[in-house]
Amino acid sequence: MATAPCRRSILNLYSSLLRTSSSFSSYNFRNYFVAKTQETFRALQAESDPERARSMYEEAKKELGVLRRSAIVNQIYGGWRLSVEAQQTQRDPDVIKERGDN
């Protein structure tokens, strides 16, 4: 009989996956993997079968390794920033705004 992983190990894995997902330099990849991680762990939280929860946990651990390698490659070959990212930095009150028509 398999036991489900403990709450602490699930939360540690969740935070590691979120941290790794947030490290992507590409806006689209970053948002996709953050949303996918949240969706995966909501499903894991709702799972009542300990065997299924254990297999989902093990799958997420494997995914973490793949995600870490992918994030490194994405940071190396990230590409240009999107206009959506530029708009977010302009809304930041700590960023000094300069007008080009002065």
What does this structure look like?
The protein is mainly α and 102 residues long. 70% of the residues lie in helices and 0% in strands. It is built from four helices and no strands. 10% of the residues are buried.
Give the CA-CA distance, first to last residue.
72 Å
Coarse shape: elongated
In total, the number of strands is 0
Give the tally of structural domains: 1
Proportion in β-strands: under 5%
- Residues in helix, %: 55-70%
Radius of gyration equals: 18 Å
Mean pLDDT: 83
Derived structural class = mainly alpha
The count of helical stretches stands at: 4
> What string gives the helices and strands in order?
HHHH
Topology diagram in text:
Blueprint: H1 7-22, H2 27-46, H3 50-76, H4 83-90
